[in-house]
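Example 3.
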Amino acid sequence: DGGITQSPKYLFRKEGQNVTLSCEQNLNHDAMYWYRQDPGQGLRLIYYSQIVNDFQKGDIAEGYSVSREKKESFPLTVTSAQKNPTAFYLCASSRAKNYGYTFGSGTRLTVV
Amino acid sequence: KNQVEQSPQSLIILEGKNCTLQCNYTVSPFSNLRWYKQDTGRGPVSLTIMTFSENTKSNGRYTATLDADTKQSSLHITASQLSDSASYICVVSDSNYQLIWGAGTKLIIKP
C-alpha cells in the first residue's frame, strides 16, 4: 500500500542535542513538506521541497535543516539552535503544489 | 493579512446528533478550501477540497459548503458517530498555492 511513514513516533531530546526525524513516502510524489503543530495553533510550515536536491524555507525555518537526496525521503533535523522544539511534527507529500496532501502519522518531540 | 478563523474552538454533542463547524477566511486571491480530519496523535486526513465555483461537496456523512462572496465555509456532520471525535481543520490556498491553516475545531461525540 502506498503511504508516508514517519519515525520515530516519540522522540526525546536533551538540551544542546541535534535530532533527526525521518519521513519516507512511496507515493511517487514530487513535493514534500514539514510542518510543526502546537496546541491551539494552525500548522506552520518549516521547509518544503518540490524536487530532489532542492528545498525552500517555510515560515519558521530557523533552527531546522533538511535534505532531499532521494525523491522518497525528506528528513528533518532539529538543531540545538531551535530554542523551543517541543511540538508535534508532521510530514506531508503531494503530487504537486496545488494537489491534496497526504500526511504521515507524526513525530512527537519532547525536550527533557 | 491572510487568516483562517474557525469556530467553535471545541464542541461536545451526543452520538447521533448533527453538527456544523464554521470557517471564515480573509485569504486573497483564493484558490481552494480544504477540510481535514485529524484524530488525536495522528496526521490530518483530507475530507474535501472545494474550488471557487463549488458551493457544496459531500463525502459520506460530511457535507462542506462554500460561500466565496462572504468568504465562509461550513462542515456539516450528519448522524454523528463516536469515530467522528477528532479535530477538524479548515485550510485555504491562495493563488500561489500557499496554504493558510486554521487552528481547528475539536469535536467530541458522547455516547
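Chain A touches chain B through 20 residues (CB under 8 Å). Chain A has a mean pLDDT of 94.
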